Amino acid sequence: MIQGIVRTGASTLHVIGQLGLAVVMLLRALACAPNAKFLRLVTAQVYFLGVLSLPIILVAGLFIGMVLGLQGYNVLVGYSAEQSLGTMVALALLRELGPVVTALLFAGRAGSALTAEVGLMKSTEQLASMEMMAVDPLKRIIAPRFWGGVIAMPLLAFLFSMIAIWGGSLVGVDWKGIDSGGFWAVMQASVNVYEDIFFGFLKSLIFALVICWIALFNGFYCQPSSLGISQATTKTVVNSSLLVLALDFVLTIFMYG
Amino acid sequence: MSEKKLHFFVGCFVLSACAALLLLVLKVAGFNLTGQSDTYQLVAKFDNIGGLKPRSPVKVGGVVVGRVESIDLETETYTPIVTLSMFKKYGYYPETSSAAILTAGLLGEQFIGLRAGFIDEDIVMLEQGDEIEDTKSALVLEDLIGQFLYSIQDKE
């Protein structure tokens, strides 16, 4: 009984301590003035996190768009409302699937890589030796990776939505023969720049912050061993995926509820 | 990899993402860049606007010649008042023109159908801020069904 209370208290303190560490890490990493050297580091990270994620994002987007188009068509054609397919595909992608699926793929492709990279740096004491050389690893390692991920993810989400809508039109217009004028015109009549595109962008930006933060925190504070790295990587993917899905619901309530 | 190549790829990535955003805004959301200067405003009063919304199209013979800018209620007479923003490139309409709220298809979205009236010597063209006098309200399906049932009862 007493044992249980002690354990609950200890784990609560542990969680609060971790949250505090994460906030302090982020604030210390972000509190630095950008200079040319820093921008070069960020560019390199945009390459590793953004450009190298393109294949998985684009292929996944194309197939998700095509599946949405096909399933939507099969339902809508029963009401002879297949012209509304464009609206359905575009709204589903811009509001939900674009940001969320991109975030999940990004967590799996880039978040895990960030954690493993930083964790291995810690295990091999590269971070400690940087500190010995009076180089702050938070500013040299963490900050560029954070900014690189935050810049890359919304851009990936735009590309995802665009190619998925194209995939939807490929199935709807080119295969199933919906009139292309109707497909695009009905879509244009119901998609709103502010409510759909901007809110989708906002979602992907928030997801990017969450994923990069979790990934870097787990890497930076992992147990310096091979087991520790593997646990940290798993934790990054699981935690950030769950948090993205839960946050998406909360954000949707505020934006469209 | 050399720094130049890396910068090239990142540049391509950012530019293609910007292009995707531009495509989304222009092609998917149908955002047009025509400014305020290319339109003029007309006003029309309807008894019932049905499901008309701001940004609904105004059509002449099926061609979109403007959009609904705002919908308001005139508090003295309790009639809805609709402001239309008309594209200047299609010119002006005579004051004998009539506006009706129509529905695209059976259950589609509603739009304003404008029918240009005749032009005579003493007929002036509608200018910025003028009112279209001759209007027809939206057909409300429930009202129609109600009238239909009522007329059947009368016959019996």
UniProtKB/TrEMBL annotation, chain A:
Main subcellular localisation: membrane
Known partners and oligomeric status: The complex is composed of two ATP-binding proteins (MlaF), two transmembrane proteins (MlaE), two cytoplasmic solute-binding proteins (MlaB) and six periplasmic solute-binding proteins (MlaD).
Signal peptide (from-to): none
Function: Part of the ABC transporter complex MlaFEDB, which is involved in a phospholipid transport pathway that maintains lipid asymmetry in the outer membrane by retrograde trafficking of phospholipids from the outer membrane to the inner membrane. Probably responsible for the translocation of the substrate across the membrane.
Cross-referenced InterPro entries: ABC_MlaE_roteobac (IPR003453), MlaE_Permease (IPR053408), Permease_MalE (IPR030802)
Protein name according to UniProt: Intermembrane phospholipid transport system permease protein MlaE
TM segment ranges: 15-34, 46-68, 88-107, 146-166, 197-216, 237-256
Cross-referenced NCBIfam families: MlaE family lipid ABC transporter permease subunit (TIGR00056), perm_MlaE_1 (NF033619)
Species, as recorded: Motilimonas pumila
Membrane topology classification: Multi-pass membrane protein
Localization, UniProt: Cell inner membrane
Family under the similarity heading: Belongs to the MlaE permease family.
Keyword terms of this UniProt record: Cell inner membrane, Cell membrane, Membrane, Transmembrane, Transmembrane helix, Transport
GO cellular component: ATP-binding cassette (ABC) transporter complex
GO molecular function term, any single one: phospholipid transporter activity
Keyword Transmembrane: yes
TrEMBL record, chain B:
Gene from which this protein is expressed: mlaD
Domain of life (superkingdom): Bacteria
A Pfam short name: MlaD
InterPro entries per UniProt: ABC_MlaD, Mce/MlaD, MlaD_Phospholipid_Transporter
Name under which the protein is recorded: Outer membrane lipid asymmetry maintenance protein MlaD
Native species: Motilimonas pumila
Residue span, Mce/MlaD domain: 39-117
GO molecular function: phospholipid binding; phospholipid transporter activity
Cited NCBIfam families: OM_asym_MlaD (TIGR04430)
